[in-house]
Structure formats: C-alpha cells, structure tokens
Amino acid sequence: MAKKGRAVNRRKPSPGGRRPWVALLAVAILIALALFFLEKSRKEPAPTAPAKVAAPAVSTPHLPLPEHEKPVQQTLSTARVPVPKHHAASLPKAHGPGRVAVIIDDMGSSLQELQTLQSIGLPITYSIIPSLPRARQVADSAHAAGAEVMVHMPMEPEGYPKQKMESIGLLVAMDDAEIAKRVSDYFSRVPHAVGANNHMGSRFTQHADKMEAALGVLKEKGVFFIDSRTSPASVGYQTARALGIKAGTRQVFLDNVQDEGAIGKQLFEAATIARKRGGAIAICHPHPATLRALKAYLPELAKTGITFVYASALTS
C-alpha cells in the first residue's frame, strides 16, 4: 500500500490568466515601434515641396516684345522684326473725323523706301532733298503712282558750319539773287514738285527777308509752302501768307524717338489735333522704325475716322 503523501495545493491557471501581460507586452512593442518611426522621420529629410519653382520664360502664348525691350543679343535685323501689334492696343481708342497729312522728309536716297511707303495704300506726301542721288527717280516714281511730291529745301541751321548742311543749302549770308537761283535749281532737280518745305533751317527761317527771297520763287511757280517749324521763332508761314502763297505749318514730328510705340503715340497725337482743329500736318523720315510704324498704324487710324490727305489739302 502506497504511502499517502501530503497533497500539494497547486492552482490550475485560468485560461485568461496571462492575457494582461500579453496585452502589456503588445502595448510596449507598439510604443517602441512608434518611437522608432518618429525618430526616423526626424532624421530623414522632408519631401521637396514643389513651391517656389521659377516659372518657364514662356508658359503661355504671348505677343512679341517691342524691339526696344528686347535684350541686345536677341535684337533681330530691321527687315525681320514684326510690327508689335500690342502697341495699338495700348493707344487711345478715340473715334471721329479729321484730316491728317503725313510728309516724309529726306526722301531721295532709295526707291525701296518709296515702294514700302506706297504699299500702305494711303495718301503720303514725299519731300525730296534735291542733292540726294535718287532724287529725280523718286520724284518720277512717286508722281507716276499718283502721290504728291515736294522739294525739301536745305536751309542754314543754328550752329552752322559746325552743324553740317548740304552744300547746295541756303545761307543767311547769301544775297537774294543767289538764294533765288538755288531755289530754282531745286525744282529742276525734283520734277513734279507742287510744294516745298524747309530742311533744317532753324536759323534761316528766322530771317523774314531771306525767307521772302526763297519763297518768291515758290510764288512764281504757283506752289505751296509748309513751314517745318524747326525753330519756334520761324517766320516762314507768316512770310508765305504775306506773299499770297498757300501755306501750312507742321503740328507734330513723328519720329524724334525712333521706336514704333513712340511713333504710334505721336500719330495718335496728330489724330487728336486733327479731330479738334479739322486737320494736322505730321512730318517724319524714312527710318526703318518709322516705315514699320506707319504701315501698322495708318490703316488703324483710318478705321477710327481719320482721313489721310496730301499736304496741299491742308494749306490755305
């Protein structure tokens, strides 16, 4: 018979007795993992934000920059530069009637200039310097096309002789006979001329007696005179009227600044004057920028009610 031993009192573990420790362990692991990833995220650089990235130079279609705003290295040749259409959009939108005469001074060097201007299809008056090499050809071609031709008479400027002038020009020191002889010669060199205006002449046009000698030839030929007003003290217009010559005076110089936008603004200034007074005379030169501007803006102004006329139409 077996010896009866002392009963050992062992507690059988309950099925859920270890769950609290497992739960605590799981929580500890989760906390450890969270701390690990948090520390890692602090050490790793944040993803690069796409902000503050410079925009492309041309992100959407746009109009070309005006020639004067382009960097020097990007400037194109004159023949290839398109007229900046956005200049017209920035200018006044006034409408109404008025007459404008555009005189192109310093013509006589090139037939190409004449052809470019004639392609505009509006009345333009050509004032030709008699001593230029293509003076007769330009006069003949302009007349054949139905355009109005003038003589651009060289006259002594302030500062002469340091300020250069054509050798055939009129000087204050000349006697009346020499002045008349030279003016007559101008008309022989520029056929079909129906009028004349002064080239330079800021000094000569201040002398009524000298202007009378020059304008006397115009009276004999029955042609008109336009005072270019190269000096505010000019007496050219008054002298012509006193002699009974049909005359007019320049209101606006278009291209002192050789830039299409600036020339466009001067054209609109001439149009504004024409609307107020009935007419305006504008003078410019066959510079490349001027040719481009005239080709762009004259048709646009015509659409607003401006009528372009020859210079003779604005004389009285």
Automatic annotation (TrEMBL):
UniProt organism field: Citrifermentans bremense
Region (Disordered): 47-70
Classification lineage: Bacteria, Pseudomonadati, Thermodesulfobacteriota, Desulfuromonadia, Geobacterales
One of the GO BP terms on file: carbohydrate metabolic process
Identification of the protein by name: Divergent polysaccharide deacetylase family protein
Record field: transmembrane: 21-38
Entry superkingdom: Bacteria
Keywords in alphabetical order: Membrane, Transmembrane, Transmembrane helix
InterPro entries reported for this sequence: Divergent_DAC, Glyco_hydro/deAcase_b/a-brl
Pfam families, per the entry: Polysacc_deac_2
Residue ranges, compositional bias (Low complexity): 49-61
